Amino acid sequence: xxxxxxxxxxxxxxxxxxxxxxxxxxxxxxxxxxxxxxxxxxxxxxxxxxxxxxxxxxxxxxxxxxxxxxxxxxxxxxxxxxxxxxxxxxxxxxxxxxxxxxxxxxxxxxxxxxxxxxxxxxxxxxxxxxxxxxxxxxxxxxxxxxxxxxxxxxxxxxxxxxxxxxxxxxxxxxxxxxxxxxxxxxxxxxxxxxxxxxxxxxxxxxx
Length: 207
Prior knowledge:
By secondary structure, the chain is an alpha+beta fold. It has helices at 2-28, 115-123, 132-136, 169-172, 192-199, and strands at residues 30-34, 49-53, 63-67, 81-88, 94-97, 100-103, 106-107, 130-131, 155-159, 175-176, 180-185.
């Protein structure tokens, strides 16, 4: 009996605690995801692994992962989650004109991407200038997102860093807060530039 109790205490209990801790951490706190595709290039590359912190406290400039199956009606087979950057939050206006991106009439600091992506890449197939009103009136967005001039409550407007290839809010509309899985953090071994571009954009979001 003593041997059985010792076995349970020394082996079964630690293993059970470890399993419970793992489940709790991955369910309620952090997880690991693999970047799929080039839409966040050059900051996050295809097949790179990053940490996802499960939080609802998101700011402009944060990079997030969300359930794309709930947001993009034209999602490609095999895809599940998208990684994009939060450009605007509830109540914000968004406008792109003359090669510059504006939120609430203020110029956004986009030093985290090249001038080509800021200009030609962001222009997209909707022309050299656009706003939430023009994008949401194209008929491509979900019915509930159409004909909006500001980001709705509990929603985000997101863009990929590699704008010329990114399938993002320009094409499918706003991302609901309830579909956001969490905020991206990059491991310590990534370059300082990438870490700053991913983790610190909310600190100097406007130019």
